[in-house]
Amino acid sequence: MVDPLSEIIALLQPRTVFSKRISGAGRWGVRYSDFGQPSFCAVLEGSCRLAVDGHRALTLQEGDFVLLPATPGFTMSSTDRVKPELVDPKVMAKQTGEVRHGTRGGRPDVRLLGGYFVFDSPDASLLVSLLPTVVHVRGVERLSLLVRLLGEESLERRSGRELVLTRLVEVLLIEALRSPAVEDTPPGLLRGLADARLAPAMRQMHGQVARSWTMAQLAKTAALSRSAFFERFTRTVGLPPMEYLLAWRMAVAKDLLHKDLGIDEVAERVGYGSASTFSTAFSRHVGQPPGRYARARRT
Question: Which partner from 18, 109, 174, 182 sits 20 to 30 angstroms from 189, CA to CA?
Answer without folding.
Answer: 18
